[in-house]
Amino acid sequence: MFGIRAGAAFDGDRAIPGGALVLLDGVRIAGVKPGTAPAPDGCEVLEVPGGTVLPGLVDAHVHLCADGTDGTLDRIHEPSEDGMQAVISQSLRTHLAAGVTTVRDLGDRRFAVLEWRAATHDAGYPAVLASGPPITSAGGHCASMGGEAAGEEQLRAAVRERAARGADIVKVMTSGGFATAGTQVMLCQFAQDELEAVVDEAHAAGLPVTAHAHGLPAVQMAMAAGVDGIEHCSFLTDKGIVQSAEDLARLAAAGIAVCPTVGFAGVPSPTSNARAVLERQGVTIEQVIEMRQRRVGEMHAAGVRVVSGTDGGVARTKPHGMLPLSVAALVAGGVSTAAALATATSLAAQVCGLGDRKGRLRAGYDADLLIVDGDPVAGIAALSRPLAVFASGRRLAGVA
User: Which of 136, 262, 315, 353 meets the CB 3.0–4.6 Å disulfide criterion with 140?
Assistant: First the structure.
């Protein structure tokens, strides 16, 4: 048995007064005791009086096949099979070093992440959930990943293929995207009955559906189709973000999980699609980022199930391992630090279908833990200062 005694602790929902002694027994948490409790006889204890122990983080939106450079999605077809497997492995190691012990990949190249997961690997990686290539329209957003489909018959067949290959979730591109030139972020890529066919087929196979949606019409289409989640959920129009109280109430009432993918590692260089939107609206990228954070804060305040995810890997300002910055962006938008931490621990695990074993400091749960320098409940910047990371009870080498 091994113990971690930290001066502060966050259990996935709230801070634990006085810190905690977390006991690990192999790959599971054996118990969580008050910070002053004695350790069992013979139990080695890692003492971190100035640190905080919390559940390993869950990034609910990554692209492991992308290498974190600008234009990576345009080049995603270039690496060989072995080269792509190497990109995936490196992406995962970067996440783990930042304290992310579970990722949800929402768009790979031709099932490469599912193939990576099926291969034999050691325990030094995060747990991986995956969608396979996102279902998109002919020539649509991220078509280079291999998920093009047109018409109800092809769409249903695409869902069945993902189920047969062991996907955990179906990702569908309801609108165009900023990273794919020629697509329209304000417009829908499918008809309403086509999206409903995707949802129907996925639910029949026992799979949830999450929809990429930037434009207001695409967000409303996704809600009407009965999706389980919406990625980005930007509510964009030519006049800016139009996020009505009525639409937020619909999202909250339906229990739809929204992963807004806020947060950047620096100021992004707008793509051609993004520049066109900025010019039409007469705003700067900095103004849009600030406005988006506030709107997501309002979304959370309205009772919408907001979870943290990064879109990690798709650009230099969206690198792998930046989840602490996404959590901080929620705080900047008005979400409390404890609630923001929950979006990347207990709530994210629940939305990913892992709420019975990940995302909490609780006996019987997976021994996925993050120890940081300082207290992120008192100041969210502490989340970006990892001292140690444990995945399935194994301490990550190379973290102080």
Answer: 136
Considering its fold, how many domains does the chain have in total?
Answer: 2
Question: Same domain, yes or no, for 40 and 174?
Answer: no
Which distant-in-sequence residues (6+ apart) come within 8 Å of 166 by Cβ?
Answer: 114, 118
Together in a domain, 228 and 243:
yes
Does residue 210 sit in the same domain as residue 263?
A: yes
Query: Does 222 share its domain with 311?
Result: yes
**Contact criterion met (CB below 8 Å) for 174 and 185:** no
Give the relative orientation of helices 285-301 and 245-254 as an angle to the nearest 10 degrees. 50
Q: What are 143's two structure tokens?
A: 């078509």
**What are the backbone dihedrals phi and psi of residue 381, each rounded to the nearest 5 degrees, phi first?**
-60, -25
> For residues 229 and 251, what is the distance between their CA atoms, to the nearest angstrom?
9
Q: What is the pLDDT of residues 218-250, one digit of tens each?
A: 999 999 999 999 999 999 998 899 999 999 999
Is residue 340 within 8 Å of residue 327, measured between CB atoms? yes
What is the domain range of residue 108? 57-351
The phi and psi torsions of 244 (rounded to 5 degrees) equal -85, 155
pLDDT digits (tens, 9 = 90+) for 54-99: 999 999 999 999 999 999 998 998 889 899 999 999 999 999 999 9
The CA angle 382-384-234, to the nearest 5 degrees, is 110
- 298 burial (CB, 10 Å; 0-12 / 13-18 / 19+) is middle
Q: Which of 17, 72, 148 is nearest to 317 (CA)?
A: 72
Question: Which of 164, 163, 155, 131 has the alpha carbon at shortest distance from 61?
Answer: 131
Of 329, 350, 343, residue with least CA distance to 10: 343
400 within domain boundaries: no
Alpha helices, H only, the chain: 81-97, 112-118, 151-164, 192-204, 216-225, 245-254, 272-281, 285-301, 323-332, 337-343, 346-351
